[in-house]
Specification:
Blueprint lengths: L8 H25 L1 H8 L3 H17 L1 H11 L1 H21 L5 H18 L3 H12 L2 H12 L1 H19 L2 H22 L11 H9 L20 H8 L2 H30 L5 H33 L2 H16 L11 H18 L2 H8 L5 H30 L3 H20 L11 H4 L4
Length: 444
């Protein structure tokens, strides 16, 4: 009699999260890669370019809470898949703005980036929700680190690609190419991703492994589909009443400030402050980004090993975050050298540290109340990506006022320090927050 086989479908799922998230970040990073060419055509100074770079995040932040409610009510697969289609169409439309007069093109592109931010709002709350369903607690650090490393891989892949396209064709072609590639991805998504208990290839042994280890395998299955919407102000206030969750949210704001520096101003910094061509920028930015990928995956592995050895969530999650943010502080050293090789090396170390410490989604998968995983992730992402609005604007203002990136690097380094303070002194013990249905509905 043959022994039942335990499948490993969850690894295919996290691979799909990594690919989809890479394309999502690729859509965000395109604007920074084409920023110089676009600025010349549309006559943008650093301040106006900062507004354009932040446009995505305005709607992205506002749409976070509705996105969380949609995920909890309609399930991750459907909402996430429609999101991919939505940003694909926005990317294609963005390319056509290049044929409009400069003032009109700026307004149209700003609006399309707003729309793209709104439709991409479910992506990372969806990632956190899917990982909570598909992975036991002891594997979540690795799984979350894999999809979170997509932000660095996006620069590795899309940086050189879009740098080559904008050099040999035009900036409009970058948006068209990204949009068409994402449309193909949406078709693959719908054929590959399912809820745990509905996946056609999963074995009962794997389902049991997930459930015994603390995975929420019943999410989006059967009666769970019929649960009422969690999107109420009472539920939001309840989440904000938890000091642990608020500390996690503040920490994520600070860590995301580093992310948005790397996604928006970093290629422009290499071009303007270090005098590289855009083609060279694409390749130069890929080395630090590769270090970010390595740091991100390593941080998840180390966190899971610490959890197995200590059985202490706080030690396992906080240690990589603190060490990683300390590494990210090294970017300030770029202000004290004119050697391009040293600059790239320091940025590579900063990227590595940012990746190593970017365990916020792991923490939120561990800490979110079971019945509000989508809403908790969306509120977490709302706080985090407020930095996506402010960071491009603040850096644009600093560069315009000082004519230099020096204070901008100090500001980003200060955000890394604040993340350390938040996790060490505000978060406290990391555990799953639990609220009764009466509390969620405001009847307790």
């Amino acid at each position: 009699m043959s022994t039942p086989r335990q499948t490993r479908v969850r690894y295919l799922i996290v691979f799909m999260l990594f690919v989809a998230s890479s394309f999502s970040y690729g859509d965000r990073v395109v604007l920074s890669i084409v920023g110089i060419a676009l600025s010349k055509q549309l006559h943008l100074d650093p301040s106006r370019l900062g507004w354009l770079l932040s446009s995505f995040s305005w709607a992205y932040v506002v749409a976070q809470l509705p996105a969380g409610g949609l995920l909890d009510r309609y399930g991750s697969k459907r909402v996430y898949g429609y999101s991919i289609i939505g940003w694909s169409l926005c990317g294609i439309l963005a390319g056509f703005t290049g044929y409009l007069p400069a003032a009109t093109a700026f307004a149209a592109l700003f609006f399309i980036r707003l729309l793209s931010g709104a439709v991409q709002a479910p992506i990372f709350p969806g990632n956190g929700r899917i990982v909570a369903a598909w992975f036991p607690s002891a594997e979540r650090g690795r799984a979350s680190a894999i999809f979170n490393s997509s932000q660095y891989f996006a620069l590795v892949f899309f940086g050189p690609l879009m740098g080559w396209v904008v050099t040999h064709f035009n900036w409009q072609m970058c948006f068209w190419l990204g949009g068409l590639m994402s449309l193909v991805l949406s078709a693959v998504w719908f054929r590959t991703v399912y809820s745990v208990k509905e996946h056609p290839s999963i074995s009962q042994l794997e389902i049991s492994h997930i459930e015994v280890g603390g995975g929420l395998a019943g999410m989006d299955y059967g009666a769970a589909r019929k649960s009422p919407s969690t999107l109420t102000w009472k539920a939001v206030r309840l989440l904000l009443s938890s000091r642990m969750l608020v500390g996690i949210y503040i920490g994520q704001y600070c860590i995301t400030a580093l992310t948005w520096f790397f996604l928006t101003w970093f290629p422009i910094y290499l071009s303007q402050a270090r005098h590289m061509s855009m083609l060279k920028v694409g390749f130069a930015a890929s080395l630090p980004a590769l270090c970010g990928v390595a740091g991100g995956i390593l941080g998840g592995v180390v966190s899971d090993k610490l959890l197995r050895r200590t059985s202490n969530l706080s030690i396992a999650r906080k240690t990589p975050i603190v060490l990683g943010m300390l590494c990210s502080l090294t970017m300030i050293g770029c202000n004290y050298t004119d050697n391009t090789t040293i600059v790239i090396a320091l940025m590579a170390l900063a990227f590595f540290g940012k990746g190593f410490g970017a365990l916020g989604w792991t923490v939120i998968s561990d800490a979110a109340p079971r019945s509000m995983t989508g809403l908790t992730g969306s509120l977490f992402n709302l706080f985090g990506n407020t930095a996506g609005i402010l960071t491009p604007l603040i850096i644009g203002y600093i560069v315009k006022r000082t004519g230099s990136f020096n204070l901008a690097l100090v500001y980003v380094g200060f955000m890394a320090l604040c993340a350390i303070i938040s996790y060490l002194f505000i978060v406290g013990d990391i555990h799953r927050a639990e609220f009764t249905q009466e509390q969620i509905e405001g009847r307790a």
